[in-house]
Amino acid sequence: MERSWRSSVLLLMLHVLFMSKEMNGVDAGPPKHRLLMERRNLLANGLGLTPQMGWSSWNHFACNIDEKVIKETADALISTGLSKLGYTYVNIDDCWAEKARDEKGNLVPKKSTFPSGMKAVADYVHSKGLKLGIYSSAGYFTCSKAMPGSLGYEEHDAKTFASWGIDYLKYDNCYNDGTKPTVRYPVMTRALMKAGRPIFFSLCEWGDLHPALWGAKVGNSWRTTNDITDTWDSMITRADYNEFFAELARPGGWNDPDMLEVGNGGMTKNEYIVHFSLWAISKAPLILGCNLRNITKETMEIVTNKEAIAINKDPLGVQAKKVRMEGDIEIWAGPLSGYRVAAVLLNRGPIKYSITAEWDDLGIPPTSIVKARDVWEHKTLKTQFARNITATVDSHSCKLYILKPVS
Ligand SMILES: *[C@@H]1O[C@H](CO)[C@@H](O)[C@H](O)[C@H]1NC(C)=O
Ligand SMILES: *[C@@H]1O[C@H](CO)[C@@H](O)[C@H](O)[C@H]1NC(C)=O
């Protein structure tokens, strides 16, 4: 695949800037040991070989959560068949704890909403063959300010999470002490590594200090953007920011443009298909954010697309990039295993367009004859294609193809 010179130059500039100014903060050890420490992978937990999949409470429920919602969501992941497709993390987001720690310094699950405690919730979720995620902040409070953060309590909280059977930690950036994320996040990485249980570490520092440049040593995924909202503009701009760092995603460490809004009602069906398509080819975490207890047939159709999920989980683990842009039209593409290419023909504009993607832009040899699989129509097109593929694409819609050279 031809590298996009634009993103390569940008990345190079960021690297130079970053290495010279910021990396000194990653480890507080004596200066002569710094270079060694920086190169060490702090997080050798073996997790995230494909992007994480599951559900999180935040996008739909925000702070209105309790153990009933969490358990019923676990039930729904099973009864809908979503867990069989890989959606296995059940992630509790902000607002799960009491405002104050107990006299021993422990975080305390909120008595009014999680009366059984987190160990019981974890046991329930595990009994279904699922995994439980939890949330904290590299600050004095979490973003809701309704509960404490873990700054200064990293080892203590990591041990607590492990003792409850937690499998995943989303670590936010609110109410911090003004020190750099490169100082605060690795402290939790080390604490998790000492906690005696593999815990997936999802960094959520909002892209403040270009976490793609240092995140792979520290976490299994890193947010590249501010929070998503359930609108077309928010969704598509998260995808744009996230694409800058495409070359830095790899098995074990993924760029995270935030959780899915599919099914929350703020976008059209075609817009949600664009959302899911871009997240799939961007090797983004597929963390559902709707209410699974009353998920509609239309939402299920989108989030259960096995071929889109297979693109996301492809063993090559290469994030797709924008390979051609012209006004409202964009081509995004990335290589898949088996000499295949995943391509999105995207129409961001207000009217219908005919979009052509050329082999040269897609990284397909110029003389190849190509079979095209339409991932949303679930069919292999009868025509075989030479040099390019063209489709008519509605406003705020896309085509998602898997292209396979046959000669
Ligand atoms: C699901 O229920 C919630 C209330 O819990 C409601 O806000 C939402 O609109 C419902 N969604 C659908 C698709 O019925
Ligand atoms: C697409 O390829 C065909 C040959 O298969 C060629 O005739 C046509 O000019 C190409 N179109 C574009 C827009 O490049």
Automatic annotation (TrEMBL):
**CC per GO annotation:** plant-type cell wall
User: Which InterPro entries does this UniProt record tie to the protein?
Assistant: Aldolase_TIM, GH, Glyco_hydro_27, Glyco_hydro_27/36_CS, Glyco_hydro_b, Melibiase_C
Domain Alpha galactosidase C-terminal stretches: 326-403
Q: Which reaction does it catalyse?
A: Hydrolysis of terminal, non-reducing alpha-D-galactose residues in alpha-D-galactosides, including galactose oligosaccharides, galactomannans and galactolipids
Q: What is its EC number?
A: 3.2.1.22
Q: Which GO terms describe its molecular function?
A: alpha-galactosidase activity
GO biological process terms, semicolon-separated: carbohydrate metabolic process
Asked if the keyword Repeat belongs to this entry, the reply reads no
Q: Name one Pfam family in it.
A: Melibiase_2
- The stretch of residues making up the signal peptide is 1-28
Question: What keywords tag this UniProt record?
Answer: Disulfide bond, Glycosidase, Hydrolase, Signal
Give the protein family.
Belongs to the glycosyl hydrolase 27 family.
Name-wise, this protein is: Alpha-galactosidase
Species of origin: Erythroxylum novogranatense
